[in-house]
Amino acid sequence: MSGLNLAQLQAVHYTEGPCLVLAGAGSGKTRVITHKIARLIETGLAPKRIAAITFTNKAAAEMRERASGLIGRQARDVLVCTFHALGVRMVREDGHALGLKPNFSILDQDDVTSILKDCAGGTTDAATARQWQWTISGWKNQGWDARKALAMAKDDHERSIALIMQRYEERLTAYQSVDFDDLIGLPMRLLKGHPEVREKWQRVLGHVLVDEYQDTNATQYELLKMLVGERARLTAVGDDDQSIYGWRGATLDNLKKLPVDFPQLKVIKLEQNYRSTSAILRAANHVIGPNPKLFPKTLFSELGEGEPVRVQDCDNEEHEAERAVARILSLRAAANPPPAWKSFAILYRANHQAKPFEKALRKANIPYKVSGGTSFFDRAEIRDLCAWFRLWINNDDDPAFLRAVANPKRGIGHTTLGALGSFATQHRTSMFGALFNAMLPAAVPKRALDGLAEFGRAINDLEYRARHTHGAQDARAFLADWLKDIAYEQHLYDAEDSEKVAAARWSNVLEFCDWMAQRAGGQIEDAAGTTTHKETKSLLEVAQTIALLSTISEREQEQDMVVLSTLHASKGLEWPHVILAGVTEGMLPFKLDDDEGRQQKIADDVAARLQEERRLMYVGITRAQASLAVSWTKKRKRGREMVACQPSRFIAEMKLDAGTAREDPREKLRQLRAEFAARAQAAAPAVRA
Ligand code: ATP
Ligand code: MG
To answer: How do residues 635-649 score in pLDDT, each as one tens digit?
Structure first.
């Protein structure tokens, strides 16, 4: 238990009841979780009875790695995952109580929009369907189903969306599919409505730990409460100043409710920041200052004053990117040995802001990677292959059927598929099920029938083989065979005009298969030639969790590259040198009056939105360890126009020119402690008397 301060130790050693660690950025909250896993095992709790819940899969991978560093092999059995992955596990084990078979499919955002479009008759545009999706997702995150939504609808518009939601629910049941929100909602329904399932999970889990607690939503909290039950062996760590997912339904109410729902809650505060220099921390404290406080907090650093925070005024976005590159190069030139590329991060508000930086970095031959951007899994070729996997796993997954049967093309046209669809509905079966129905020949033309039957046989055969393929080596061979069988490479070259694009897509496919194979485990050899042994999984098991993954490779982190990331995706991470870009009024804070789409769900209240933007800035600043530069542009592209811009109000709020010594929070803390000690001493004789 070395490397922990007193307050951290207290949090780690308190295992008898609910515990909340509430503290600012970089104060070692995540470290508390990893050490507490080790501590719980030390006290005799079996690793598989510990669940540690993280915000992303990447964070889970990192935590697993840290935990293995502390406790070795045992860390493998600890359930370190996101709420959604925990949900998959629960629904897979106990979903039968809700009428779901264990091989259900998980739909991604795109599947959901296309099903919604279809529910409305197919003439809707994508933007409207996405709006519906937001609304429905919001309802689901409050724990509502279509019936409830219909009852609560405020106007005709909401009523019509609730009716679409009703059809959407029916489809999902027919397809034996769930969406992301269901991965929280269904486990909650399971625990709520099925006491035997609830008791089982409360018995199974001896302690539940939650990182980034401030960004949980209402259903996640309900789920958590039911998972831990009366015994409440729960450790949550979080920071109200870093709550940045309000637009996606996260709510600080969960922090407020904890002491009410668990009166025996032990609240521990951490006050020392181990990440950033005083100069950086001071800027962060100043920025977050104007936000209302849920709990009073102090944060100090003993890492010294450090380099002052720089503000870079730039003419436009290209200039901003050039200056960022220049800064990276000069920081490298100034130190001996130069800091690695991976010690630099460029952070910004929105994905599209990465472009100019990518260009400038490429021009300077600097290796970089974009994280939190369009995921590998959103690419058409990867989604094609995933549709096949989904169909192996769940034959009732009609959206996957439609995609797989058409990619690569096998001469089965829309009319045939339309006829097959109506036949399936009539006979209350899935499209795949319909292929094997003795009455089908009467419903579709003979020519199409052969193609369909062949497709059905191929899927069955592949499914059987995927179930019996274990380990990386066999998985790799199987995947290669399969791609050759369906002539997927040829399909890509036929579909693309440009050979270069087709080649790039094919190389994505190969990378993807390699990654799938790696996950099947067994003997794995890495680039350096080191062999490790992992538990093997069948290819079918690997395929089922794909929908949850958004990062192609966990070893990516090891690569020596400059990181480009959105602020949202940077949560929980740290880099020695950070460049915070686009800190321009209208970008950060984001234009508060007329932003579209995703902002809808955030309260109409502009003040609340400004507060969330301010927390985003706070998250950005506090990612930096040794140096921080904040840049803004005098002009910014909006559509085709260039518009004149002002520096973000947050730059002034950092109060970079204010005196340093006077405002050292450490000094203030010492004063407070001295006063407290004096008061305690003054009170002591009275107590004795
Ligand atoms: P965030 O709010 O950004 O999620 P956090 O509170 O989770 O931050 P950690 O990531 O756990 O903070 O810790 C920040 C850094 O400080 C890490 O590099 C960690 O290793 C280090 N650290 C944490 N506690 C200590 C300690 N007691 N002694 C030395 N270093 C520490
Ligand atoms: Mg953390």
So the answer is: 988 778 888 999 999
Q: Does pLDDT of 244 surpass 80?
A: yes
Task: Please indicate whether the domains covering 6-92+185-270 and 300-374+558-686 agree at the CATH topology level.
Answer: yes
Which of 405, 392, 541, 412 minimizes the C-alpha distance to 469? 541
Pairing assessment for the beta strands 624-633 and 575-580 based on DSSP bridges: parallel
Q: Stretch 204-219: mean pLDDT, rounded?
A: 94
28 marked as part of a ligand binding site: yes
For ligand 1, say whether the CB of 429 is within 6 Å of any of its atoms: no
**pLDDT higher than threshold 60 for residue 603:** no
Ligand that lies nearest to the alpha carbon of residue 273, given by its number in the listed order? 1
pLDDT(398) > 50: yes
pLDDT at 672 over 80: no
**Cα separation, 674 vs 652, whole angstroms:** 33
Per-domain boundaries in the chain: 6-92+185-270, 106-175, 300-374+558-686, 377-548
Find out whether the beta carbon of 25 lies less than 6 Å from any atom of ligand 1.
yes
Q: What is the pLDDT of residue 524?
A: 57
Q: CA-to-CA distance for 128 and 651, rounded, in angstroms?
A: 37
- Ligand 1 near 3 CB (within 6 A): yes
pLDDT band of residue 528 (cuts 50, 70, 90) is low
Q: Architecture of domain 106-175 in CATH?
A: Orthogonal Bundle (1.10)
674: Cβ–Cβ under 8 A, 6 or more apart, which residues?
none
655 is in an annotated binding site: no
Q: 3-state class of 190 per DSSP?
A: helix
- Residue numbers annotated as active site: 29-30, 211-212, 242, 623
Helical (H) or strand (E) element with 270: strand 266-270
Quick: pLDDT tens for 4-45: 999 999 999 999 999 999 999 999 999 999 999 999 999 999
471 pLDDT higher than 50: yes
Q: Is 4 in the pocket of ligand 1 (CB under 6 A)?
A: yes
Higher per-residue confidence, 119 vs 601:
119
| Average pLDDT score over the chain | 86
Tell me, what's the pLDDT at 662? 46
- Going from the Cα of 685 to the center of ligand 2, the distance in angstroms, rounded, reads 43
Residue with CA closest to ligand 1 atom 16? 274
Does 269 count as an annotated binding residue? no
Cβ(164)–Cβ(180) below 8 Å = no
User: How many A from CA of 11 to the centre of ligand 2?
Assistant: 15
Its CATH class, for the domain covering 6-92+185-270, is alpha beta
Q: Which of 322, 372, 367, 369 has the alpha carbon at shortest distance from 352? A: 372
Q: Is 466 assigned a ligand-binding role in the annotation?
A: no
The yes-or-no verdict on residue 492 having pLDDT over 80 is yes
For residue 178, is pLDDT > 70? yes
Residue nearest to atom 28 of ligand 1 (CA): 3
Contact status, residue 470 vs residue 520, Cβ threshold 8 Å = yes
Write down the CATH number for the domain with range 300-374+558-686. 3.40.50.300
Q: What is the CATH number of domain 377-548?
A: 1.10.486.10
